[in-house]
Amino acid sequence: MAIYFLLSSLLLICVLSYGSQKLTAKRLKITIEEATVDDLQLAFRLKTLTSREVVLFYLDKIRELNENLRGVIEVNPDALSQADIADKERRECNHTLPKLHGIPILLKDNIATKDKLNTTAGSFALLGSIVPRDAGVVSKLRRSGAIISGKASLSEWSNFRTSWAPNGWSARGSQGKNPYNSSVEVCGSSSGPAISVAANMVSVTLGTETDGSIICPASFNSVVGIKPTVGLTSRAGVIPISPRQDTVGPICRTVADSVHVLDIIVGIDRNDNATSEASKYIPVGGYGQFLKHNGLEGKRLGIVNMLFDSINHDVFLKQTFEQHFTTLRKQGAVLVDNLEIAHIEDVLDSHSSGEFDAMLAEFKIALNEYLGDLVKSPVKSLREVIEFNKNHSKVEKINEYGQDIFELAEKTNGMGPKEQEALSNLKRLSKQGFKKLMTDHSLDALVAYANSASSILAIGGFPGIVVPAGYHNTKKYPFGICFGGLRGSEPKLIEIAYAFEQATKIRRKPPLA
């Protein structure tokens, strides 16, 4: 891709030398569409492309596609002025700039920005609210020179308002659509980031996960998602569900792009105590050094049969993953199969494990704290959010799907005996299950189909990376392969995911884009 882009850039130099006028979005399409961060940075260095032109291209794509796909909930009116600043800084700079400098990024609409953009979790209840400051990850992005191009849609309140709403739906954003097939699953809750970056409405995106909210939409929209170790990235300024499980991570078209974003957003934030402890996992020199083509050599990968049970009846999926296992072996990995995780049925059932009970109480506490910290807001507590939805039920289908999870959370009263028992059970399940599996078999990573391992990773705060793994031949939907590991194992997971991606190069541009 880099060679192709270099040739395209040299061609543009020739065109410019003959006095052509400002490049139009149509002429830029061949160079910007599907371009990686490294491709764009190369064009910036060759002075064949500006950040303003990149932003204009993406704004044009949003106008063209978003009415149907609903991946973007709001565009930043200051995106072009940010691009102009980036272009000016690049002209005047005589040293290497950060990888994301001048690169547009969309943020999931639960990540706070202290600017003209709203932060609403897709809800009208927070429309017009004013946050006290940028989220911790946004501050890091701004310091890197990234352009905040807007907010991406999501499953309203990160899928923690109601049991009945479809994935990718919110009152503000409407129903998100899969750009590969509008009739199939888009998944959530970070649906908008996955839709938008898959459809080339932005360069890179940022999502959040509590249990599956990065892993699942990345898988079903054929993009790469990194769910970092909890605490590796700051959650300060992010509308919460569970501080014990919440994490912020990139959703991009390639592993390399995701790693470039991760390198920028990790690190200590005084507004999130968990980042101090997790910062010990950050490698000297960053994560980019682990983008190795031979990253699978010598890696021990575990296969738990139950995580592939859902595809055993599907000949195409079963054969596809058998081919992937062959590829992993050819690239030097050792596959340890026929493994079992103790009490996995309980782990995968949020009610049996206690995960749901714990999150209900954690959500009420954390949300009330977030709302109470707002400078201005139509609502200041979970109770007021519930009342807002009831009072506005006839407006924009605000209460179309109810709010049963909200109501259950409101009935909780702190972390009582029931919740403490749930937390103890989650720790036991994680220690005796995933941790024991990984240590007993000296595994570097667990391999799973799509989001089948999301709860295993969620309850222990463990990281995972999803990479495109194929497109169903008859049902016409994308699916991914997930590599998960113990806390702080991002370097190994990046090596594995990147080597698999480079060996297979499965992802293709969606037809609806």
From TrEMBL:
EC number: 3.5.1.86
UniProtKB keywords: Hydrolase, Signal
Domain annotation Amidase: ranges: 53-447
Superkingdom per UniProt: Eukaryota
InterPro entries: Amidase_dom (IPR023631), AS_sf (IPR036928)
Signal peptide: 1-25
GO molecular function, one term: mandelamide amidase activity
Listed name of the protein: Putative mandelamide amidase
Organism of provenance: Rosa chinensis
Upper taxonomic lineage: Eukaryota, Viridiplantae, Streptophyta, Embryophyta, Tracheophyta
